[in-house]
C-alpha cells in the first residue's frame, strides 16, 4: 500500500514519537485509527450502495477489466488501427490516381495571385493616415 514497507512505517513512527512527544502521541494515534475506520466504512457503504443500485449485475461485472492501470494507449491505438473498416466493400479495388505535380496548394496560390493582379493595386487615400 503506497509503497510503504514495515521499515518505513517504523521510521515514521519513531519520528512521530520525537516530534509529538509521548504525551500527545496516544491522542493522535487514536484519531488516526478513527480516520482509518471512517474511510473503510465509507468505502464499504459506497460498495453496498452500488450493489443495491446495480442489482445482480454487480457480481457479474469483471472489475479487473475496468482497471485504468491496465490501459496502454499505444496498444489501444495499435488495435484501433489494425481493425478493418466495417463500411469498406470487400470487392472494391484500390485505384491510384495520377499524382498532381502542382499540388492543391500551388493551384490555389496561382488562382489567388491571378485575382489580385486582375483587380489592380489597392486604392490609396493620402488623407486617411
From TrEMBL:
It comes from Cryobacterium lyxosi. GO terms for cellular component: membrane. This is Sec-independent protein translocase TatB. GO terms for biological process: protein transport. Residues 82-129 are annotated as: Disordered. It is a single-pass membrane protein. Its main location: membrane. Pfam families: TatA_B_E. Keywords: Membrane, Protein transport, Translocation, Transmembrane, Transmembrane helix, Transport. It is found in: Membrane.
Amino acid at each position: 500500500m503506497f509503497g510503504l514497507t514495515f521499515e518505513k512505517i517504523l521510521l515514521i513512527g519513531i519520528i512521530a514519537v520525537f516530534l509529538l512527544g509521548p504525551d500527545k502521541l496516544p491522542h493522535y494515534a487514536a484519531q488516526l485509527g478513527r480516520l482509518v475506520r471512517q474511510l473503510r466504512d465509507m468505502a464499504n457503504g459506497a460498495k453496498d450502495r452500488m450493489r443495491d443500485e446495480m442489482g445482480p449485475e454487480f457480481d457479474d461485472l469483471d472489475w479487473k477489466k475496468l482497471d485504468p492501470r491496465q490501459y496502454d494507449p499505444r496498444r489501444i491505438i495499435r488495435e484501433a488501427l489494425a481493425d478493418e473498416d466495417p463500411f469498406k466493400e470487400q470487392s472494391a479495388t484500390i485505384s491510384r490516381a495520377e499524382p498532381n505535380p502542382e499540388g492543391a496548394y500551388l493551384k490555389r496560390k496561382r488562382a489567388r495571385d491571378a485575382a489580385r493582379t486582375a483587380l489592380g493595386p489597392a486604392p490609396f487615400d493620402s488623407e486617411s493616415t
